[in-house]
Design goal:
The protein is of the alpha+beta class and about 650 residues long. About 55% of the residues lie in helices and about 5% in strands. The protein has 27 helices and ten strands. A four-stranded mixed beta sheet has the order 5-8-10-9. A hairpin with a 4-residue loop joins strand 9 (about 635-640) and strand 10. Helix 3 (about 35-55) crosses helix 14 (about 310-320).
């Protein structure tokens, strides 16, 4: 099994145990949650708290030391809370061990599935992780010196721990991090449903819904083709969709053309540009923000002591580092709730329960300004430091209101064909939102501030149909503004509908069950494609087998702070953990680098700041008359005799 061949299992397990032990003791002492939930909730709390803490400690200590110190500190804090250890604590550890079995199954399943996938943001994530794992922190933008990559990087930071401590390759470490966060989120979703229903069957359905619920674009297959053609004529394909086919109609029966697909490709018609099933959350942000939301929902109504403000604040601050949009909308939801309460009560004197959460929101907001990530980068820009930050962007008002799909472009709600398309992209979960609104209002009246804030954030998220994003993340980033609305509807759908339908006649049961099946159909089909990758581990579409060989031999072995010239800068940054001066953004090449790539004279390349070059057989064949000069020293070469290819690392520091 690759776990034992690609990762040092003992130190990785010790690290995970420290997360679990610290988180379990924190939840035991500060939160009155059911004993059956403490194990998995404790693991999540400890993992997020330790990772968040390492984000600060890594600025002062070597990276591996920072990871160990943060994990040990989390455990010591838990010991401090529960000291002296009582018998009831030891007995509590043994309760509901059975929940670990499905968690372990899901963890192994999705880790191995991810191990066979190499899609989405590898070109961004692997270089950042590789350079960060060498000790560069905060994470830099790998392709321009002195630029901080202010990004929602907590998943990458979590994964980097398995590089530094588990000695895993960066691609394996990212797969493990995705596997553990995905499996925890799915388990938490089931726990949340069980709290409402007290039914094991409902808990199981909650897990399935959390995994597979998404858009229902596949319903086009059941429509008259003439009608689908009219819809197709009214939408404009973007990004990978435009690269996959000429029109929506043309893509009805075709695969999604992306780099590094599974052996059985994803059918385009079962995807969504707004609301893909959670099993497809394998980009740079992953499901960490959703996991944190589930932890907050599971803990918020069971606070035992005021000291709980510490882990709750850390969870909120971590959310800002996991997904700044979700966090900002959450804060906006709380602000709206606060405003409504003040208007209703005609008073600024807040009750203690509301003041408690106000302190948490305020503290996490302050931390979000200094901890790194996009919010920190935006605030730094206000003080004239935009040159040191990668991400830029802004929002502008639009009318008529529209939904932006990452695949089908701008979908105006005033165009009937585009409106239908927008509904199918989001899926039937929006039909459950009225129930969620009622629940949120009752939560507000019952002083359940956290859940009410989450629901209110969904209301604000829904209002984002009047807003569009513009910046270097592209128009498609607008779809992230709908995450809270979709997330609220999805998380509460099963528990609220279960309670509602139990009071209705049999006909309502059939209708709701049918809607549920329609909602999860896309996820199930996409999951079947993912399963085809289970037994086929790959590194990335960025890397060939000989690149992997070079990684194993030379990662972080070149002198510190040197640059490696490679016409494919994503590749060399991943392999060697060394950056370059090559890109203005992830999508725009620097003109100077483009000139060097077209005519790679080693003297000029070295004059541009590079000490090494890395290239393939085909690149060498095109430029051998330029690169083969006496000052170039071959360091190593990896050959693929079957394909007639090679990778060559050369030293050009003597070329002057």
């Amino acid at each position: 099994m690759y776990f034992f061949s690609e990762i040092s299992i003992i130190p990785a397990l010790v690290l995970i145990f420290l997360w679990f032990a610290g988180g379990w003791m924190i939840t035991f002492r500060l939160f009155d949650i059911p004993a059956r939930e403490r194990g998995l909730v404790g693991l999540g709390v400890g993992m997020i708290a330790s990772t968040w803490l390492s984000n600060f400690i890594a600025r002062f200590l070597p990276l591996a030391s920072a990871f160990w110190v943060s994990a040990i500190f989390t455990t010591l804090f838990g010991l401090y809370l529960v000291f002296p250890v009582r018998n009831q604590i030891r007995k509590g550890l043994l309760k509901n061990i059975g929940q670990w079995v499905p968690f372990a199954f899901l963890f192994i399943l999705f880790t191995l599935i991810n191990r066979g996938l190499a899609i989405f943001d590898d070109y961004q994530n692997l270089p950042v992780m590789s350079i960060m794992a060498t000790g560069k922190f905060p994470p830099p933008f790998p392709f321009a010196r002195d630029v901080t990559f202010n990004y929602h990087y907590i998943l990458l930071l979590l994964a980097t721990q398995f590089v530094s401590i588990g000695h895993a390759p960066v691609w394996t470490a990212l797969d493990v991090a995705r596997g553990i966060t995905m499996s925890l989120f799915f388990m938490y979703a089931g726990m949340f449903v069980y709290r409402f229903t007290n039914k094991p069957a409902a808990q199981f359905i909650g897990v399935i819904f959390a995994m597979f619920a998404g858009g229902v674009r596949w319903l086009y297959l059941l429509m008259p083709l003439s009608f689908v053609r009219k819809i197709s004529d009214n939408v404009t394909l973007l990004g990978s969709a435009a690269e996959s086919g000429s029109s929506l109609y043309n893509l009805l029966y075709k695969p999604w053309l992306i780099a590094g697909p599974p052996p059985y490709p994803f059918p385009f018609i079962f995807l969504s540009g707004i609301n893909n099933a959670s099993i497809m959350s394998i980009g740079g942000a992953g499901l960490v923000s959703s996991l944190i939301i589930m932890l907050l929902l599971l803990l918020c109504t069971h606070v035992r002591e005021k000291s709980a403000v510490i882990p709750l604040t850390i969870l909120f601050a971590s959310m800002a580092l996991a997904n700044e949009v979700t966090y900002a909308l959450f804060v906006a939801g709380f602000a709206l709730l606060l405003l409504i309460w003040i208007i209703q009560q005609h008073s600024l004197k807040l009750p203690a329960s509301l003041f408690f959460w106000l302190g948490i929101f305020f503290s996490s907001g302050v931390l979000s300004l200094i901890q790194g990530g996009i919010i920190t980068g935006v605030v730094s820009g206000f003080f004239g430091k935009t040159a040191s930050s990668y991400h830029e962007g802004g929002l502008h008002y639009i009318f008529p209101p529209a939904i932006v799909s990452g695949h089908l472009g701008i979908l105006s709600l005033f165009n009937p064909y585009q409106l239908i398309s927008a509904f199918l992209e989001i899926g039937p979960v929006i039909l459950f939102f009225p129930l969620v609104l009622i629940y949120g209002w009752n939560a507000f009246k019952n002083n359940n501030w956290l859940e009410a804030s989450f629901v209110f954030s969904g209301v604000i998220s829904l209002c984002m149909i009047f807003v569009q994003y513009s910046g270097n993340a592209g128009l498609t980033a607008t779809s992230r503004l709908y995450n809270n609305f979709i997330g609220v509807s999805t998380i509460y759908a099963i528990p609220l509908v279960w309670g509602w339908v139990s009071r209705k006649k049999e006909f309502a049961h059939y209708v709701v069950s049918s809607l549920g099946l329609v909602t999860i159909m896309s996820g199930i089909v996409l999951f079947s494609s993912q399963l085809s990758a289970f037994s086929r581990p790959v590194a990335s579409y960025l890397l060939s087998d000989i690149d992997v060989q070079m990684y194993k031999k030379y990662w972080n072995q070149l002198p510190a702070d040197v640059m490696v010239f490679d016409v494919a800068p994503f590749r060399s940054a991943t392999i060697f953990g060394r950056g370059s001066e090559s890109l203005e953004t992830l999508y725009v090449t620097q003109p100077e680098f483009a000139d060097l790539a077209g005519f790679p004279d080693p003297v000029k390349v070295h004059a541009a700041g590079y000490d090494f070059m890395y290239y393939s057989n085909s690149y060498w064949d095109d430029h051998k008359n330029v690169v083969d000069i006496p000052c170039v020293k071959i360091i190593d070469q990896m050959d693929d005799t079957e394909l007639g290819d090679f990778r060559r690392l050369v030293n050009i520091s003597k070329c002057k």
